[in-house]
Amino acid sequence: MSTIPVKTATANYPVQVQPRLLETLAPHLRKVAGEQRSIFVVTSPEIWSRWGQSFLASFSARKIDILPLFVPAGERYKQLKTVEHLAEKMIVAGAKRDALLVAFGGGVIGDMTGFLAAIYMRGIRYVQVPTTYLSQIDSSIGGKTGVNLRVGKNLLGSFHHPVAVFIDPTVLTTLPPKELRSGAVESVKAAVLGDARFFAWLESNLGDLLAGDQEIVTRAIEISVRIKAEIVSADEHESGQRMLLNLGHTVGHAIEAATRYRTLLHGEAIAWGMIAALHLAVARSALPPAEAKRVEELTFRLGPFPRFHATAKVLLDRTAGDKKHLQSAQRFVLPVAIGKAIVVQDVTQQELLAAIQSMLRTMKEHGV
Ligand SMILES: NC(=O)c1ccc[n+]([C@@H]2O[C@H](COP(=O)([O-])OP(=O)(O)OC[C@H]3O[C@@H](n4cnc5c(N)ncnc54)[C@H](O)[C@@H]3O)[C@@H](O)[C@H]2O)c1
Ligand SMILES: [Zn+2]
User: Among candidates 254, 259, 257, which has minimal Cα distance to 274?
Assistant: First the structure.
């Protein structure tokens, strides 16, 4: 079992990664949360029917009530109303301030459960047991929680860290391949912004990763988690370094918004966003073209990614609407080498437009 620490000014917790960890969850939970009489597990009917038995396996001999709270799968249920329903169910079940919540699902469930934990009786503890590749390497770590509003994503939320994250790569065996590929884009992103050795390792091992080789998948998760954990530990609230995690996200978020989150999975939009960031970096001679080509090639091995219909102008306008840019001049994460990115503030609208246009041209050749 590998344990990766997250240590911020306000929180200190372990991220544990091990195949089949789910089957031995009870003692691990007790270690981080103490004896509990009841545990509330937020999950979806689909995930529970596939993995509920494994989840329950280590609890059977103990006097602990496991109370599953079901939410339907899907981003559209990531809303305040769902959180309210969950809170009401908890009240009815008698949950007090010492209650423990477990988020057992993908990023949608993780973000919602974290937010519920942040506001239920002004804050209770929760644990993340993420079940998608994306949530295992990204959304379960770092304490960002929240729900969507009709007018935009993640607009209500708070920082509330879990007391632990338990990652069982085995649960990914039931994940649709498209979800795995899309999540793996964030691994490529992590490698590009912070770990050249990991990038080279991915170049050699991506085939096995996508084929579901347990050892390779586990290793990829461990390294990706370590990169995110180190960045979050250095900068909890995205004042500087944490911004690096948004590589590819300025244009990626614009694509998601312009296509109303319907055409592409998150990672797929970020893949196009990274292509735009590469073009921008090469155009200002910040990144050698040969390195950009390697990143592009590795990224496209996770495709093919869906094409979408949006003009460069619409996408440009949408980048300004990204809430992360409201406070200041437009910040942009610029890849400057494989393994290194920097945050710059001097990207002009013309530069960004040119990068988006050249990304759209690339899409004509590579999209499906
Ligand atoms: N908090 C953060 O820092 C952060 C970071 C990145 C993304 N996010 C959020 O994460 C969300 C996306 O998360 P996601 O990509 O995990 O999507 P998701 O939670 O919607 O899960 C994707 C799909 O996979 C299914 N699924 C989950 N686990 C499965 C399994 N083991 N086997 C079979 N099917 C399974 C789900 O039911 C769902 O249909 C977005 O809402 C995004 O805003 C948050
Ligand atoms: Zn992302």
Answer: 254
